[in-house]
Amino acid sequence: MGPRGQQISIPKGLPVLVIDNDKMILESMKLLMSGWRCKIYKAKDGARAPKEFEQSTTQYPLIIADYHLDHETGLDAIQSLPEKFGLDLPAILLTADRSKLVRERPQAEGILLLHKSMKPASLRSVIVQSVLAMKTRSSAAE
Questions:
Q1: 53, CA 20 to 30 Å: which among 12, 65, 80, 104?
Q2: Which fold has domain 11-141?
Q3: How far apart are CA 65 and CA 78, in angstroms?
Q4: What are the pLDDT digits (tens) for 81-112?
Q5: Measured between alpha carbons, how far apart are the two ends of the chain, in Å?
Q6: Distance separating alpha carbons of residues 39 and 41, to the nearest angstrom
Q7: DSSP tag of 136
């Protein structure tokens, strides 16, 4: 529930950039989140983030990245994108790694962390939380 008891949902067409080096995971995430009315963009790493994502960003774009990529961490990819696109993007980091470093570093950067294997409902809830946080920040800035 949102402020004053309002039901918060994922906005239709929410642009989500999914970064993962596994094509099967990318396709699965696209299938899952398309069912939630998200507009999905896929990349194997931060450098391959599609231009279409930059051009489609609304007030509440989102990045979801796997921690273990081929040539960088998902955290590195997430941190490179605001510089590339000139945006302050909310992000969710997915990982099976439960080490202290992997838990603490995203938290220090303001990046939400979800441990694998998570249920779709958990991912959806975190996406809704991210959207709500962006709306709150946006309202506070006005």
A1: 104
A2: Rossmann fold (3.40.50)
A3: 7
A4: 766 665 667 889 999 988 888 888 888 888 88
A5: 23
A6: 7
A7: H
